[in-house]
Amino acid sequence: MKSDLESSLVILGDSRTVLKELPTGFFQCCVTSPPYWGTRDYGIEGQIGAEPTVDEYVHTLRNIFEEVRRALRPDGVLWLNIGDVYTSGDRGWRAPDKKHPVRAMSYRPNTPHGLKPKDLIGVPWRLAFALQDSGWYVRADVIWDKPNAMPESVKDRPTRSHEYIFLLPKSEMYYYDAKSIQERNGEGVRNKRTVWHVETTPLKANHYASFPVKLIEPCILAGSREGDWVLDPFFGSGTTGVACAEHGRRFVGIDLHPEYVGIARKRIWSAPVSFIKAGGTPYG
C-alpha cells in the first residue's frame, strides 16, 4: 500500500527550533541519521557535527532527542543511525580526496580530552549512553554491515565497514512488529538478527551521506503501522520519506539545508508532498 502523502510535510528549518512546534505524543516512530561529528563540512550556518568537542555534539543531540521523545506517542520508538570517527591528531583541516572530494574539510575538531591521536572515539555509544541517561531505553544495537564499504588507505588497522542503528523506545512497553521483519531461514523464518547486510546506494544528486531505503525499511515496518506518522528531524535527501511512501506511512521531515530539502522533494515528487518553512503548521 502506498501512502496518501497530501498531509506529509518537508520542513526547511533547524530541528532545534522546529521540533518545539510539533505536538506532544503525535508520532509513532522516528527514524533518523544526524550529521556525524567532525566528518563533513556542509557549509551552512548552525550545522550540527561541527561542534568544537564531542561532548558538545552529544549534548546538542541529547537535547534534540528530548524534543523527539516528547513528540512520540507513549509506545513510540526511535531508530537512530550513527557512525564512529577517529581523532584528527589535531590536524585543523583535511585535504581533498580525488575520488571523494566531499571529504575535504576546512576544519577538524581537536583530539578530545583524554584521548590520543589515532584513537577511535566511540561516538555511537557515547550518544547511546547519554540518551539512556536521559530516559530512553536502549533495546538493540544493530550493526549495519556495508558489503561495498568505501575503501580506506590504512595499513595499521582493519577498514571500517559498519555503522550502528540503535533501537530506543520511549517507554518500557512499546510498539514493535517483529513478524513484519522476520528473516528467511532455509525453508522457514526466524526473528530479525542484529547484523544487517545492506549495500550503500549513493545518490546521483549532491548528497553523499544518505542511508539506503532497504536499511530503514525494517525500522519503518517494525516501528509503525500503516497510516501512522513517522518523524525524521535530519531528513537529508528524504530516504525516510521514500520508505514511508512505499509502506503507507505519513511523515514529517526536517532539514536545515535548502539544497537537501530540494533533493528530498524531487525524490518524492510522484505524490503531492507539502513543503513549508519553520513557523507554519508542521503536521496534518
Characterize the structure shown:
This protein is α/β, with parallel strands linked by helices. It has a single domain (5-277), classed as Vaccinia Virus protein VP39 (Rossmann fold), CATH 3.40.50.150. It is 22% helix and 20% strand. It is built from 6 helices and 11 strands. It has helices spanning 15-18, 54-71, 123-133, 213-223, 239-246, 258-267; strands spanning 9-12, 27-32, 72-82, 140-145, 162-169, 183-185, 188-190, 195-197, 229-232, 250-255, 274-277. A 9-stranded mixed beta sheet has the order 8-4-5-3-2-9-10-1-11, with helices on both faces. It has a two-stranded antiparallel ribbon with strand order 6-7. α2 (54-71) packs across α3 (123-133) and α4 packs across α5 (239-246). The longest helix has 18 residues, at 54-71. The radius of gyration is 18 Å and the shape is globular. It starts with 8 loop residues before the first strand and ends in a 7-residue tail after the last strand.
SSE layout:
Blueprint: E1 9-12, H1 15-18, E2 27-32, H2 54-71, E3 72-82, H3 123-133, E4 140-145, E5 162-169, E6 183-185, E7 188-190, E8 195-197, H4 213-223, E9 229-232, H5 239-246, E10 250-255, H6 258-267, E11 274-277
Parallel strand pairs: 1-10, 1-11, 2-3, 2-9, 4-8, 9-10
Antiparallel strand pairs: 3-5, 4-5, 6-7
Helix pairs in contact: 2-3, 4-5
